[in-house]
Amino acid sequence: MVTEHTIFYGIIIFMWMETIWGLYLSLRQRRIYKKSVEVPSELKEIVNKETFEKARVYGLDRNNFSMVKEVIGGVTTTGLLMLDGLFYFWVLSGSMLTSMNLEKGEILQSAAFILIMNTFNFIMSIPFNIYDIFFLEEKHGFNKQTMGFFIKDKIKGYIVTHLIVLPLTCGIVWIVKVGGDYFFIYLWLFAILATLFLLTIYPDYIAPLFDKYTPLPDGELKTRIEQLAASIHFPLYKLYVVEGSKRSIHSNAYFYGFFKNKRIVLFDTLLKDYTPTNDKSKDKETKEEDKKGCDNEEVLAVLGHELGHWKLNHMIKNIIIMQVNMFLLFVAFGFLFKYQVLYNAFGFYDEQPVLIGLTVVLQFIFSPYHALLNFFTTSLSRRFEFQADAFAMGMGKAVYLRRALIKLNQDNLGFPVYDWLYSTWHHSHPPLLQRLKALEKSD
User: Fold this and answer.
1) How far apart are CA 340 and CA 228, in angstroms?
2) Catalytic residue among 106, 137, 243, 306, which?
3) Which of 115, 135, 244, 426 is 20 to 30 A from 386 via CA?
């Protein structure tokens, strides 16, 4: 018979196995950063010595930071579990309701528990966020945030998160309590509806709270993007530029929206000749070779890649995988959440709170499953990226996509040399060299 101690220490052991595995992979990549001090022969026409060295040092610093963060995270989680942290926060949530003269029902207590746990995690994450942004990213010239912007952004994120999460938590607990033997079906349907609702309201009501979205000005680029979208019948509704330069000089592009309401968003840092409306300090005399970002042809090639994801139904495939996975997890939870020994393992001997059961089963018991699923989805994502590159090449964008990938890699100080095992486990996008070789093979 499985005992509470077997479950508890099995969870702790697997968690540290994952942590050690992650550290092992990081150490393998760290050796690459240490040894690769000269530009490899196949990269000499792609990356100059100065940029290669900057990327190497940046990668090494991020690697060191990730290892320290991973160890501290493992120690913190272990300490929390060993000290019956979940039970303590659950009792604390009940006391909070009592102090507020609120009835201590399980639904309200679950909401209070989420609020307390999220606040704890929020506070614990702040030192890492500050170091990441104001020391590491600042050191390498990426950070554009002020401390005031950072604080305001974090407060807004905290408030918005809980305005969304707390009602969802109450809904989840209520469904499990009243849903009967087949509650997991209702829970799954609720999750689907909640996801669709959030995806619908996010672009118009949530995203603008954090970043400024401006319609792409009329001109050659806008006209050619519209022509590109029309050529494959992409239902483009609006084109936006987001002022990502207020946060960082890292660049990106993406699309979102349902049915006939598709929108394309370009980071201002992606556009070589774009000047943010509030940026009065930008040097108008910047030399052409010193400008970051992509020219119009390269931007169109990047969008050809993104449109490839849409045309090849990659988003739909990912959504199907996510929903099937969610359904299976809810079914498993339905079979396991009444198993008292799971609660005993975390200090709950007299009650079986639904939210604690969800946390234990989905986060801890199924952690080996999540590790395998993450590896599968990472591998699938790399395959999708190659397919999207091939689609852009089929649109006649191979040369410009190659140029764009090189520029973006240099602008973001992406290190082009990776340990094969580290890359296989971590990279949802193929490294630069693999993508360039695939484009060359397809020429």
Assistant:
1) 58
2) 306
3) 244
